[in-house]
């Protein structure tokens, strides 16, 4: 699926690290940040989760929820959250069905070796489940702050 700004995002119903099933249609906040990342407890993914966790209260003040999605299991998510004192909800997409629907499950190349994996991508979505902004091939440093700034601009316009 080719997702772009203004389009509705695909529905999902995934197990959450909070012990609940998280269904897109049940999320009622003004905006939603959905970020896809490759793997729990790797350096980039850890920094990204910590950055979003540090800013969670600021996102909450803007009536926005943050969800991280990876192919890791709920058990791995819970260990990751405990180890790094994360404040965000992580969703398990173990079969990559959601990642495929969102177009972030891609062929990657590391040192000449090709493999399938998550392309780090963030979607900012409004309450109507329409995409406000997409960040592809995300660079972790400063990313959570950039998402927050875009959210502030939208809410102030």
Task: Summarize the topology.
Blueprint: E1 13-16, E2 21-23, E3 31-36, H1 43-54, H2 56-61, E4 64-70, H3 74-84, E5 89-92, H4 97-101, E6 105-110, E7 113-118, E8 121-126, E9 131-135, H5 143-156
Parallel strand pairs: 3-4, 4-5
Antiparallel strand pairs: 1-2, 1-5, 3-8, 6-7, 8-9
- Total strand count, please? 9
CATH topology tier name: Glutaredoxin
Intertermini distance: 30 Å
Q: From the helix content, strand content and strand pairing, which structural class follows?
A: alpha+beta
Please work out how many helical segments DSSP would assign: 5
The CATH class designation is: Alpha Beta
Mean pLDDT: 95
Strand order of the largest sheet: 2-1-5-4-3-8-9
Largest sheet: 7 strands, mixed
Shape summary: globular
Q: Percentage of helical residues?
A: 25-40%
- Shape-level CATH architecture: 3-Layer(aba) Sandwich
Q: Radius of gyration, Cα only, in angstroms?
A: 15 Å
Give the tally of structural domains.
1
Poorly predicted ranges: none
Q: Write down the secondary-structure element order.
A: EEEHHEHEHEEEEH
Strand content: 25-35%
Q: Please, what is the CATH homologous superfamily?
A: Glutaredoxin
Architecture overview:
This protein has a single domain, classed as Glutaredoxin. It is globular, with a radius of gyration of 15 Å. The protein has five helices and nine strands, in the order βββααβαβαββββα. With 157 residues, it is of the alpha+beta class. It has a seven-stranded mixed sheet with strand order 2-1-5-4-3-8-9. The relative contact order is 0.23. Strand 4, helix 3 and strand 5 form a beta-alpha-beta unit. It starts with 12 loop residues before the first strand and ends with a helix.
């Amino acid at each position: 699926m080719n997702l772009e700004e203004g389009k509705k995002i695909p529905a999902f119903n995934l197990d959450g690290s909070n012990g609940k099933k998280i269904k897109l249609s049940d999320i009622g906040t003004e905006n939603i940040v959905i970020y896809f990342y490759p793997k729990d407890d790797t350096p980039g993914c850890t920094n990204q989760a910590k950055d979003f966790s540090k800013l969670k209260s600021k996102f909450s003040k803007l009536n926005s929820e943050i969800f991280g999605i990876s192919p890791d299991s709920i058990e791995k998510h819970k260990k990751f959250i405990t180890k790094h004192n994360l404040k965000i909800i992580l969703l398990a997409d173990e079969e990559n069905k959601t990642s495929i629907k969102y177009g972030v499950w891609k062929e990657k190349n590391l040192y000449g070796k090709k493999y399938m994996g998550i392309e780090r991508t963030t979607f900012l979505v409004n309450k109507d489940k329409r995409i406000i902004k997409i960040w592809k091939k995300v660079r972790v440093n400063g990313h959570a702050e950039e998402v927050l700034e875009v959210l502030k601009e939208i809410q102030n316009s």
